[in-house]
Design goal:
41% of the residues lie in helices and 12% in strands. By secondary structure, it is of the alpha/beta class. The strands form six sheets. It has a seven-stranded mixed sheet with strand order 13-12-14-15-17-16-22, sandwiched between helices. Strands 2-1-3-4-8-7 form a six-stranded parallel sheet, with helices on both faces. A five-stranded mixed sheet has the order 19-21-20-23-24, with helices on both faces. InterPro entries: DH_E1 (IPR001017), THDP-binding (IPR029061), Transketo_C/PFOR_II (IPR009014), Transketolase-like_Pyr-bd (IPR005475), Transketolase_C (IPR033248).
Length: 810
């Protein structure tokens, strides 16, 4: 087992002195970066600034116990920590402020995130995993307050899993589960539910996690007393303190942000508890100051009185650190030893200012150089069009007057020049067009790539393997198909695990995991508390550490509890790191037609709109669902798979090749051929649509039924348009609200696939009422589309065009 900080601190005075001065130097550099960063915003060179000044000392102490293989899930003020663990340089800090799109210069996000959002790169350029045990890891920050907490739980729990689970390649992710996950959060954000849910779950699971609370007494302008029931979060958390002999709870350590020796001691103890005993620890850092206030969007003088401001100046961590260094002396072999003189510290201060300024200038010059090179490649080509339209020269003059130029200004110039010279066919214009297309492709990659995987393991690349049936294939309940397929999965992939409410002991509420916990153990087939946000967070964190988790959210309606994490965190992982990190989590849920308002909703439109970046798979049967699990476990991107809740007791023929067959994403299936109208649907509604299509046949209408199967990605081969080309009529049917998922589907078919060209009638959508479904079978009938609704509305399309052949029903 790896030793801890406590066990390794046997050093000479010279080494001790060097460590102290290095910490002071880093702290001063970080502070100067904060000061200079604010000035860069106020002078207009950067858009926004939020900095870590005042938190330097606790972050330096935390960095001392942060080892290779460890992970941080943090708050966007941790610049000193990032500097200390070599995850940040002065240059990359300012490159992020300027939104430099170079991964080399700004490796955290390639300019996609505002400053203070840190990340290390977990992936090689081809999307394969690096050896995460050979580096210090920072999971990509997000801005939503406390949003980093659920992911922290999963990062920590992965260490618990790796104590018992190994697989081919697992040595890249863990050394026997000895890693700690470090979380950081501002004190005001501890008022958020995500904080409490995460800490509660961590205390129940007993995972190696250290949470640092930076307590500066305010949430922007709102003082702590208005944030929580108690101003002292340690006092509030006292009930979480573990008792001797109990395997529950956490350790709570309170320490002052300006007390350097106490901070070292606090983090050494925290590491010891977490790394050797796998106990979660809260380090409550009090007396934190904010020398420049919350951010560049305002001044803290507006809400802090003179007494508070004077106290912050006196108890500034770096000032206290300097005072401690100057007052420190020790007698060794009869000789008094000191750490540094005032002159030596002043020299370090000056060096820090120069270091910050040099790094800032280098970052600005590199950023400007990229824009200058773009301008120099474009402007002469625009100038060549002066003779073709007088307005071109006007636009060039306006462009040249700009004091500071950005990429958008260059593109605006080009597009205006092309607009006013439209209709002109000249070599000069064609040359500009060619250059514009070339640079536009580059900027498309800079700003829009990696929303989904771009590696060889992206789900679209997974080969389809059809289910195999034989004379001995049995007709079984759908839940048996999914259960037996999971059995194959857990046997085939030791890195796969599943967890959720009622998932383990009883084998999920629909028995789709019956007997799995008994066979594969409670670590891999696990029950959780009722806490959807952190079920999702467990999955995100474990997926970022190389495991293949399946996070089960009991019902589709309950996805709303974790939609924020899906939208702000999981969906953006690859995008916000420009392919630097990934979290191939599978979210398992079940939904659609059950009973009542809270158990039969269909919030698909919300999921689609808020979770771009996650595949949305909507199988019509449990065999199809099983195939999607088999597909996604070979892929490297996240997905939500919505099983049909009313399908577990319906009979299906069980494939002979369980665990092997796959269902391709982005591939529709024509389940009934027809010639008069195309009916497009998905999920549980498919059965009702099929019934309606059979009824329409009796009325002389030949309906083609298409199961979408995959909402994201959507019909990659544009097969639906081919169906509409044949039938000339289109009906989109689902049980979402009006204009919800059907609106998305219509946009895909009519706009992207250009199927409007083939329509002889207006396209029709049939959806549920806008309210939630009322209770019981009658509530379902009157709330959601019934066979009668579908037959009547589709029949009316034909009545409108040929009333003699199709006389009105009503």
């Amino acid at each position: 087992m790896q030793t801890t900080y406590i066990e390794t601190q046997q050093i000479s005075f010279q080494d001790f002195k060097n460590q102290i001065l290095e910490d002071y130097r880093l702290g001063r550099i970080s502070r100067e970066m904060s000061y200079l960063g604010r000035r860069e915003v106020l002078t207009g060179k950067a858009k926004f600034g939020i900095f870590g000044d005042g938190k330097e000392l606790p972050q330096l102490a935390m960095a001392k116990v942060f080892r290779n293989g460890d992970f941080r899930s943090g708050y966007y003020r941790d610049q000193t920590f990032a500097l200390a663990v070599d995850a940040l340089t002065v240059e990359s800090f300012f490159a992020q402020m300027y939104a430099d799109t170079s991964v080399e210069r700004e490796p955290a996000s390639a300019g996609r995130q505002m400053n203070g959002h840190f990340a290390t790169r977990s992936l090689n350029e081809d999307g394969s995993w690096k050896d995460l045990t050979a580096q210090k890891n920072i999971s990509s920050d997000i801005s939503p307050t406390a949003g980093q907490m659920p992911r922290l739980l999963g990062l920590a729990q992965a260490s618990t899993i790796y104590k018992s689970v190994t697989f081919e390649g697992s040595e890249k992710f863990s050394k026997g589960g000895n890693e700690i996950a470090f979380g950081t959060i501002g004190d005001a954000s501890t008022a958020e539910g995500h904080f409490w849910e995460t800490l509660n779950a961590a205390c129940a699971l007993q995972v190696p996690m250290i949470v640092s609370i930076w307590d500066d007494g305010y949430g922007i302008s709102v003082p702590t007393k208005n944030q929580r029931a108690k101003a002292d979060i340690s006092e509030m958390l006292s009930g979480f303190q573990r008792k001797d002999g109990e395997n529950q709870g956490c350790e709570i350590i309170q320490v002052k942000a300006w007390d350097y020796p106490a901070l070292l001691d606090a983090y050494a103890k925290a590491e010891h508890f977490a790394r050797t005993e796998s106990v979660p620890v809260v380090v409550h850092v009090v007396d934190v100051t904010q020398p420049q206030g919350h951010s560049t969007s305002g001044s803290h003088e507006r809400y802090k009185n003179e007494e508070r401001l004077a106290w912050e100046a006196e108890y500034d961590g770096l000032a206290k650190f300097k005072e401690w260094i100057l007052n420190y002396s020790i007698e060794i072999d009869g000789k008094e030893e000191v750490i540094a003189t005032a002159e030596e510290l002043e020299a370090i201060d000056e060096e820090a200012k120069k270091k910050a300024k040099t790094g800032q200038k280098a970052a600005w010059d590199n950023y400007q150089k990229a824009i200058t090179e773009l301008t120099q490649s474009i402007l002469p080509l625009v100038e060549n069009l002066k003779g073709q339209n007088a307005e071109v020269e006007t636009y060039i003059t306006q462009f040249n007057k700009l004091v500071s130029k950005a990429k958008k200004d260059v593109f605006h110039l080009v597009r205006k020049a092309l607009l006013v010279t439209r209709g002109t066919d000249s070599a000069e214009r064609n040359q500009l067009m060619q250059k514009y297309n070339e640079v536009a492709e580059i900027e498309k990659d800079n700003y829009s790539s990696h929303l989904y995987s771009e590696s060889q393991w992206k789900a679209e690349n997974i080969k389809e393997i059809k289910p195999v049936y034989s004379d001995s294939s049995e007709d079984v309940d759908g839940r048996v198909v999914i259960r037996n397929n999971f059995d194959k999965i857990f046997s085939k992939y030791p890195e796969t695990l599943i967890f959720g409410e009622d998932t383990g002991n009883i084998g999920d509420v629909n028995q789709g995991l019956e007997g799995m916990q008994e066979k594969y153990g409670a670590l891999r087939i696990a029950d959780t508390g009722i806490r959807e946000a952190t079920i999702l967070g467990q999955g995100i964190g474990m997926a970022m550490r190389g495991l293949r988790p399946i996070a089960e959210i009991q019902y589709l309606d309950y996805v709303l509890y974790c939609l924020q994490g899906m939208s702000d965190d999981l969906a953006t992982v690859q995008y916000r790191t420009k392919g630097g990190q990934k979290a191939p989590l599978i979210i398992r849920t079940r939904g659609h037609r059950l009973e009542g308002i809270w158990h039969s909703g269909s919030p698909m439109a919300g999921i689609l709109n808020l979770s771009k970046g996650i595949l949305v798979l909507v199988p019509r049967s449990l065999t199809k669902a099983a195939g999607f699990y088999n597909t996604m476990l070979q892929a490297d991107e996240p997905a939500i798979i919505v099983e049909c809740l009313n399908g577990y007791r319906l009979k299906e023929k069980q494939p002979d090749n369980l665990g092997e067959f796959t269902v391709p994403v982005g591939k529709i299936e024509v389940t009934k051929e027809g010639t008069d109208v195309t009916l497009v649907t998905y999920g549980s509604t498919w059965r009702v649509v099929t019934e309606a299509a059979n009824e329409l046949e009796k009325l002389g209408i030949s309906a083609e039924v298409i199961d979408i199967q995959s909402l994201i990605p959507f019909d990659l081969s544009h097969e639906i348009a081919e169906s509409v080309k044949k039938t000339n009529r289109l009906v989109v049917i689902d049980e979402d609200v009006e204009g919800g998922t059907t609106g998305f589907i219509l946009q895909q078919i009519l706009e992207k696939q250009k199927a409007f060209r083939y329509l002889d009638s207006d396209p029709l959508t049939i959806s549920a009422n806008d309210h939630r479904p009322a209770y019981a079978s009658d509530g379902d009938y009157f709330s959601k589309p019934s066979t009668d609704d579908m037959v009547e509305k589709i029949y009316a399309m034909f009545n409108e065009t040929n009333p003699q052949k199709y006389p009105a029903i009503f």
